DNA sequence: AGCCGTTATATTTTGTAAAATACAACCCGT
DNA sequence: ACGGGTTGTATTTTACAAAATATAACGGCT
């Protein structure tokens, strides 16, 4: 693109990747961050607030992941000393780790291709 | 994800990539196909029809690409023997070729990562 | 001069995803 | 018993992208 663009340095390859199931999306960057925030805050509602997302949307995303996975990624509890809460299951932690790796390789791919665009 | 999912073979990594400029998107898979259809049909309106897209939307996309590139990717003509038409400039043909290469490498990346998901 | 099919452009309508709102259920602690 | 903060769920409202509609301009042809 070097000679196609007025300022090639201002252009870069961007993108998104996600794990797609037969019916629904299973895991993408937004769901990943949601899982991380649940891990960090111990609740869906605080994770949603931290991301500027409505609780309903966050809950729907958790529900989608939990029902698609063989075993839930997020364990929830209603009521209790602090009203309830949520935390990652081992499966959830594994999903986070694996998808973070995918994301890292994808970022590398994008950086590579951005270099190539600027070069050729 | 092998042990996270009930039927790992049904899940795969999907995604999108695009060339992003400082203000607008410059080129993605939709714009690429639009350019290819313009090349094939000789007009924006026929290209739009071939893609099930409104003429306005197609024209807006062409306008966005033409104004961002150093030199237009699509040359248009109003009036004339068949009412007018559009065709790819050399710059447009080069953009198509380069972005098709990016897409090919991205498809390879996705296939790789899908294999990895199924495997580990 | 008038027709045709296109480009070019503005405005209105529609469809849909997200947000907002509301409220029941839960259960530990006081 | 009830207060608090959460999960769980339905419904309404809002925001925005896309589609639909409308219309002018263009220029070769008959």
From TrEMBL, chains A, B:
GO terms for molecular function: DNA-binding transcription factor activity. It holds the Pfam family HTH_1. This is LysR family transcriptional regulator. InterPro entries: LysR_HTH_N (IPR000847), Molybdate_resp_trans_reg (IPR051815), WH-like_DNA-bd_sf (IPR036388), WH_DNA-bd_sf (IPR036390). PANTHER family: DNA-BINDING TRANSCRIPTIONAL DUAL REGULATOR MODE, TRANSCRIPTIONAL REGULATOR MODE. Residues 31-92 form the HTH lysR-type domain. It comes from the Bacteria. It comes from Hymenobacter nivis.
């Amino acid at each position: 693109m070097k000679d196609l663009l007025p300022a090639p340095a201002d252009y870069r390859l961007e993108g998104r990747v996600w794990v797609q199931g037969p019916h629904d999306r299973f895991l993408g960057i937004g769901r990943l961050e949601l899982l991380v925030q649940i891990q960090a805050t111990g609740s869906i509602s605080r994770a949603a607030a931290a991301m500027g997302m409505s609780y309903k949307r966050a809950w729907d995303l958790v529900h989608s992941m939990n029902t698609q996975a063989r075993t839930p990624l997020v364990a929830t509890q209603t009521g209790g000393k602090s009203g309830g809460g949520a935390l990652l299951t081992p499966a959830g932690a594994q999903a986070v780790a694996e998808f973070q790796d995918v994301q890292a390789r994808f970022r590398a791919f994008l950086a590579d291709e951005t270099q190539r665009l600027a070069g050729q």
